[in-house]
Amino acid sequence: MEENSVSQHCELLLIGGSAGSLEVLFKLLPQLRPALPFPVILVLHRRNSAESSLSELLSTKSTAVTGEVEDKDVIAPGHLYLAPADYHLLIEKDHSFSLDDSEKINFSRPSIDVTFESAAEVYGPGIVALLLSGANEDGTHGLLTIKEAGGRTIAQDPESAQMPFMPHYAMTHHAVDHVFAPQQMVHFINNLA
Amino acid sequence: MIEDEDIELLLTDLFDIYGYDFTSYSRASLKRRIVRLCSLDKFPSFAELRYKVRTDVHYLKRFVEEITVNVTEMFRDPLFYKALREDVLPILGTKPFIRIWHAGCSTGEEVYSMSILLKEADLLKKSLLYATDLNPSVLEKVRKGIFPLNQMKQYSESYIASGGHRDFSTYYTANYGQAKFDKELSEKIIISTHNLVSDSSFNEFDLILCRNVLIYFDKDLQDRVLKLFDDSLGSLGYLALGTKETLKFSAIQNKFKQLNREKIWKKIV
């Protein structure tokens, strides 16, 4: 795929996933080049009793994992942030995080839509957003908001997804620019600058 | 589409007309709440929402209730309550009298959880629990002590995980899909409106709980409220925050020492 320098530009990489997304991340994270020049934010659906074991699990796959976000943490390039269980994760104009424990959206807290929409307001065209496997409608509205703001959106190829519903739902709602299998995602992300 | 300038106008109205100061609330969350309310109440434009808020004092009540977050539960984060049981209450129990402040208590599920802990530690008799919030209507629910029955299964599980040994259902009477908690648990609860943004300290406490309230404030307001808590805590008093909130980088951090893994700090100066 031909990519010119404009389309390789990335200020923030967002990754949203639900059921079946962990195995993709386990494959993806170790292959990303070290010290990516932009921050990565992961929003994953999970049980809220999971404690912090997920961030420990992820940090075995990538040295960039900073752990679960705490209130008002500042977003910096090269770090991989994980939305904490049981909170929505929002982004402020000054590129810091704020947390919100209001009602679940799409039966989820954190909700992928909430973080994606909030990021679209702040990072707009600088966003690259990835929606992975899942059995939920979450993420589609967020991807649409990002597209409207000029950002780029990618869905996991449903063929490759353990739970194809979530990426497929986004595709049928015209929220997706590219459809990639996990190996293509690695290549795409590593070529962003 | 609501612009940032619109939000500023609305916040100015709220302060000028009613004295509610939301200008130091975290913007991303506040804006999301306002956008949500605008679509929930089907305002055709932002201007009409603003007009309604400016002119209708009944609607103002709904507005404030909806843009502030009133989601809470009993024994949320059971390990936090376990730490209160095991590490804090035995120390507080040595005092002749225990004063506890639940700041921003919403509908009071955490206050009743604390009441249960105190009762089980045989400390409720010598305790007072101050429950405050800026919304008068949520405080009415604290007073009644009635919560949805369909939540009780989860609350009971959290209660057990917090180290509770009794049958949770002995604490309430079920009726018409509601659980009414025993009067004994509410007798020591003192209810009052209090706005953390504008009101000052009103007593000295041994333990202050303010969980998942500071996340809605910006850094400056967080610092002001933490100073208010510091001023309201006796020496060796405890301050408890939400699982993702911290005293780190705050102006009062040097006066407090974190107890353990949970977000509980002891005042050491």
UniProtKB/TrEMBL annotation, chain A:
<feature type="active site">
    <location>
        <position position="45"/>
    </location>
</feature>
<feature type="active site">
    <location>
        <position position="18"/>
    </location>
</feature>
<dbReference type="GO" id="GO:0000156">
    <property type="term" value="F:phosphorelay response regulator activity"/>
</dbReference>
<feature type="active site">
    <location>
        <position position="138"/>
    </location>
</feature>
<dbReference type="GO" id="GO:0008984">
    <property type="term" value="F:protein-glutamate methylesterase activity"/>
</dbReference>
<keyword id="KW-0145">Chemotaxis</keyword>
<keyword id="KW-0378">Hydrolase</keyword>
<protein>
    <recommendedName>
        <fullName>protein-glutamate methylesterase</fullName>
        <ecNumber>3.1.1.61</ecNumber>
    </recommendedName>
</protein>
<dbReference type="InterPro" id="IPR035909">
    <property type="entry name" value="CheB_C"/>
</dbReference>
<dbReference type="InterPro" id="IPR000673">
    <property type="entry name" value="Sig_transdc_resp-reg_Me-estase"/>
</dbReference>
<dbReference type="Pfam" id="PF01339">
    <property type="entry name" value="CheB_methylest"/>
</dbReference>
<feature type="domain" description="CheB-type methylesterase">
    <location>
        <begin position="11"/>
        <end position="179"/>
    </location>
</feature>
<dbReference type="GO" id="GO:0006935">
    <property type="term" value="P:chemotaxis"/>
</dbReference>
<dbReference type="GO" id="GO:0005737">
    <property type="term" value="C:cytoplasm"/>
</dbReference>
Automatic annotation (TrEMBL), chain B:
<feature type="domain" description="CheR-type methyltransferase">
    <location>
        <begin position="1"/>
        <end position="247"/>
    </location>
</feature>
<dbReference type="Pfam" id="PF01739">
    <property type="entry name" value="CheR"/>
</dbReference>
<dbReference type="Pfam" id="PF03705">
    <property type="entry name" value="CheR_N"/>
</dbReference>
<dbReference type="InterPro" id="IPR050903">
    <property type="entry name" value="Bact_Chemotaxis_MeTrfase"/>
</dbReference>
<dbReference type="InterPro" id="IPR022642">
    <property type="entry name" value="CheR_C"/>
</dbReference>
<protein>
    <submittedName>
        <fullName>Protein-glutamate O-methyltransferase CheR</fullName>
    </submittedName>
</protein>
<dbReference type="InterPro" id="IPR000780">
    <property type="entry name" value="CheR_MeTrfase"/>
</dbReference>
<dbReference type="InterPro" id="IPR029063">
    <property type="entry name" value="SAM-dependent_MTases_sf"/>
</dbReference>
<dbReference type="InterPro" id="IPR022641">
    <property type="entry name" value="CheR_N"/>
</dbReference>
<dbReference type="GO" id="GO:0008757">
    <property type="term" value="F:S-adenosylmethionine-dependent methyltransferase activity"/>
</dbReference>
